[in-house]
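Example for reference:
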Amino acid sequence: MKTLKTIITLALAVSMTATVSAAEIPRATAPLDATEEQILIIENLIGNILDEVQNGLGYAEAENKAEPRVYKAVIAGQTNCNDYAILSEIMKNAILNARDMYLRPEVYQEAEDRLKVLLADTITAVENGMNINTAIKEAHTKIYQSINPAFNPEVQFSLDTCYQDIPAVDMAVYNRTRKLLDDAHEVYRQKSFGCLPVI
């Protein structure tokens, strides 16, 4: 009887953690502090839901389907000690971005085309080894200054957040900025380390 219980428990655990298949989570949608392991956990849990979002499923419906999977996996101890807060954030960002890209693909393409020109120097610097976090800060400053040439990051970021005057930027611009810089970092990694896996 005890052996049967163990087998059933193991089978349930495997079925809950098995790759659901499907869409990858674009790394550009993940929080900066998210690890590759955390992204892969969410990918395995909600990949097929992201497929549905990319084919028209709404944000609320997708989140309602995805959230219980993440919660149950955390409660069951199937997330390698990664907590619900960060996993939930990765999940919500992925769904939100997938939904927005479904609704406005042309906005993302236009943003990427424009950013390739605006951020050309930063992209090249990342391909040559610039720290990705430093590059993101530099890129955001260039974006803000392209909207308001008088924007001074040293002044604005030294103020209390409620007094900062930062130009409004579409989420597509932030998304494509991360994508371009992540791609540039991958070029640097390949040049420097060949085909070693990302750790």
Observations:
- Confidence is low (pLDDT under 50) at residues 1-21.
- Residues 57 and 95 are 10 Å apart (CA to CA).
